[in-house]
Write a structure and sequence with these properties.
Layout lengths: L6 H10 L5 E2 L3 E2 H6 L14 E6 L3 H14 L3 E6 L4 H5 L10 H14 L4 E6 L8 H13 L5 E5 L10 H4 L7 H10 L4 E5 L5 H6 L6 E3 L2 H5 L7 H6 L9 H11 L1 H9 L4 H5 L12 H11 L7 H8 L6
Parallel strand pairs: 1-3, 2-3, 3-4, 4-5, 5-6, 6-7, 7-8
Helix pairs in contact: 3-5, 5-6, 15-16
Length: 317
Amino acid sequence: MLDWTTRHCRVFHRILTKNALLYTEMITTGAILYGKYDHLYYNKIEHPIALQLGGSSPKDLALCAKKAEEYGYDEINLNVGCPSDRVQNGAFGACLMKEPDLVAECIAEMKLATKVPVTVKTRLGIDELDSYEFLTDFISKVHQIGGCNHFIIHARKAWLSGLSPKENREVPPLDYERVYRLKRDFPDLTIIINGGLSDLNIAHDQLNYVDGVMLGREAYQNPSLLLHVDSLFFGESPVNPSNLHALSVEKIRSLYPYIENELSQGNKLGHITRHMVGLFQGAKGAKLWRRYLSENAHKENSGIEVLVEALKYIQLD
């Protein structure tokens, strides 16, 4: 989710669900330790929030974990699942599945540096190393040596060469049963399933087999589904489907103070509104909403009036 779940995206998602755990985009240890910007900054309304780290140096990851604790993050997640060339060239992401001892050392050092829960996001396997035995060996070592008790499993393997990151999200077949089996074989571990889940009811059914569900691109591309998360997963009052789009308009308007504050600090409207484009799927006027934002929000000196005007295209009757 690089360049997707930015802090602006997370603030937007938080107004749609107050209970779901939100994850940052993957941030490398180098960016945190040596970058010119404060990559750990977030708005306090984003809680609960997890920092997703990319890296392979136990020392650097421990330093970043300590910093994350100082910033108040609720979870620190090590990404061992991203298959992009950019990540591989940095010797982290999915290629680390080949080095379970190193991953275990990274987790152990991170846990020594912080009291914040440390978790791992990974895949079923990589390239030809995709047997169930390979997966369980990886999980066992990272758990027993590293002390990790919480794993998020993308239910596909990754091809480290020959497929783009987009193809790696679609071409390798999903194997939910392998994740279910992992939970059965490691009942004391927290196992979260990820990958290909686009229907919240089907996602909820996963709780019969695993401990939780992670949604990625579907939540980004169709954010209105997040309005149903608190009722379906956390027992709150359900949203009336007939009021869905009106509620979405209300949620956008509630962001006006946040947006005005960001604009006053020199941030661009388009950097905020680009995460909102998919909100009104199925509503009358949604196409015009998307077009107006896309054509106007990026313009120099665009202000809140662009969002106000775009909302006029959404028909609520």
